From TrEMBL:
Keywords: Ribonucleoprotein, Ribosomal protein
Protein family per UniProt: Belongs to the universal ribosomal protein uL29 family.
Protein name: Large ribosomal subunit protein uL29
Provenance organism: Ornithinimicrobium faecis
NCBIfam families from the UniProt entry: L29 (TIGR00012)
Any one annotated GO CC term: ribosome
Amino acid sequence: MAVGSNDLTPEQLRGLEASALADALAGAKKELFNLRFQSATGQLESHGRLRAVRKDIARIYTEMNERKLGIGREPEAEAEETTKEKVG
């Protein structure tokens, strides 16, 4: 990971709701576009940031696909299950 970056960890992504994941994806795509634009114009200072943002986008897509396939769970679903286990 790049130093001083705000890379998302898989644990952080698992704690986000679906709408927050979509917002994070949109923000990462926008940042990637800006970085590519800076690279094309010769203004990019940190080429490592391009790689980090691409990896963030891949992590977000992975979490979204895991939830779609039923492998991952929504954060509120996990909270409901723990309360059911305690009660029952």
